[in-house]
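FORM 7B: Structural annotation worksheet

SECTION A. Query
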Amino acid sequence: MLRTSTIPSASRLLIRQAGVSDLGGVLRVCETHAEYWDGKLPSEIRLAQYFARALRSQDEVFQFWVAEAGHGPMVGWELLSATSTDPADRQLTAEATTCLGRQAAGLGHVLATHVIRHAVRTPLQYVFARVPTRDTLMVGVLEAVGYQEVGLIPAATKPPVHPERLEFVYLVEH
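SECTION B. Predicted structure
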């Protein structure tokens, strides 16, 4: 069952739970955000498989949302995924991944806030986010909505190469 979130009525954004039919739009948003992968996206086939699996495996806690400009095109998305397969820990910790088709602090803020509001209604205790250090827009957004910086992940030197990233955590208060 796909649900639409409640967002401020003044907003022209629609945040809704994604479905498998949104895969093409999710991949297009990734392409516009490729600069944060040093301009080299992971294999399109691997990305399509990863996102198709994420879209099919949603449950009450781990979900995938898309942001649309009114009834127009997809402008960003947010994925809340499990960080552990251990049944005892699985629903305590999640990782939030945000992808903005266009760099807009307002859109990032709406998506990050949406995830926090959702997390409060679940058993989650922590939500982590990893952001390239050069993505100053998302670093600012995460700090503004209450995430705390907890570490620096050095750049990877062997494939798949990843830039230096900051790790943030949000302590979910119930």
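SECTION C. Observations
The CA atoms of residues 105 and 137 lie 6 Å apart. Strands lie at 13-17, 64-69, 74-82, 93-100, 126-132, 148-153, 165-171.

SECTION D. Sign-off
Analyst initials: ____
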